[in-house]
């Protein structure tokens, strides 16, 4: 009878050892799945970040080209306006200069008499 109890005890211990091994395998498998999911999530996040960075870079380059283009246009427009103002002042001064010379000559000759 003692050998029956000991074999039953041995069988119970063996069942516990088998259950423990099975539990370890389940935990190990769960860890592996978790690591795989984390790796996949990281890869997807890196792809999303790369897409976002690419989108923002395109937007930035677009803004740069818009502002540099409009800056060039602004400079050209300012140069044209300045040139027109210089022409207008030159024409105005050439028209008025004869009148000013005549007026000065008139006043100078009046003072002398």
State the gist of this model.
With 113 residues, the chain is an all-alpha fold. The chain has one helix at residues 2-112.
Overall description:
It is a single chain. This protein has 113 residues and is mostly helical. The chain is 98% helix and 0% strand. It is built from one helix and no strands. The protein has one helix at residues 2-112. The longest helix has 111 residues, at 2-112. It is rod-shaped, with a radius of gyration of 48 Å. The mean pLDDT is 84.
Keywords:
1 helix, single chain, mainly alpha, 113 residues
List the secondary-structure elements in sequence, H or E: H
Helix content: over 70%
What is the global morphology? Answer: rod-shaped
| Arithmetic mean pLDDT | 84
Backbone CA Rg: 48 Å
Strand content: under 5%
Distance between the termini: 161 Å
Q: Which ranges are low-confidence, i.e. pLDDT below 50, for 5 or more consecutive residues?
A: none
Report the biggest beta sheet as strand number plus sense, adding barrel if it closes.
none
Count of separate DSSP helical elements? 1
Q: What's the total count of β strands?
A: 0
Secondary-structure-based class equals mainly alpha
List the helices and strands and how they pair.
Elements: H1 2-112
